[in-house]
UniProtKB/TrEMBL annotation:
It holds the Pfam family EVE. This is Ubiquinol-cytochrome c reductase. It comes from Aureimonas glaciei. PANTHER family: THYMOCYTE NUCLEAR PROTEIN 1 (PTHR14087). Residues 2-134 form the EVE domain.
Length: 142
DNA sequence: GCCAACGTTGGC
DNA sequence: GCCAACGTTGGC
């Protein structure tokens, strides 16, 4: 079971918009970076990840789940670009900011802190648990 | 709005 | 196959 983090500029696609999609979920389109695409290729249905607001907010605001595994990005003009579909699972009652992540020794190796450019990235199980707890989730929602 | 970091492109 | 030029992301 792997864990992930997905970045989005809230001005373009926000957590509220993701939640509004409900169980229908949303294609995580627009990724045009090989590293990010390659991570999505390895994702399995049911795996969890964080939803992060870049630029505006700079904080982890919620938990998403992989609804559909890799497929061609419907917005791409080239089938090289693929993506998964995500569904919102739960809010983080207390969003965890980038500053907080950087200040927490257990999270200092998070890709979020070490490579600000990567828009889809892996999160370790321990990092996932740590952030859930810091975010006010005592247990991971079903 | 600036710019550092990083990825990609294309000339050689 | 190297690397300079360029574009983009995202923190500040």
């Amino acid at each position: 079971m792997a864990y992930w983090l997905f970045k989005s500029e809230p001005a373009k696609w926000s957590w509220d918009m993701q939640k509004a999609k409900g169980a229908e979920g949303q294609e995580w389109d627009g990724v045009r970076n090989y590293q990010a695409r390659n991570f999505m290729r390895t994702m399995k249905k049911g795996e969890r990840g964080f939803f992060y607001h870049s630029n505006d907010g700079k904080e982890i605001v919620g938990i998403v789940e992989v609804l559909n595994e890799i497929h061609v990005d419907s917005t791409a003009d080239n089938p090289t670009w693929e993506c998964v579909d995500l569904v919102a699972v739960a809010d983080l009652p207390k969003p965890v900011t980038l500053d907080t992540v950087k200040a927490e020794p257990r999270l200092k190796d998070m890709v979020l802190a070490t490579n600000s450019r990567l828009s889809v990235q892996p999160v370790s199980a321990e990092e996932f648990r740590t952030i859930c707890a810091m975010g006010g989730l005592d247990e991971i929602p079903a």
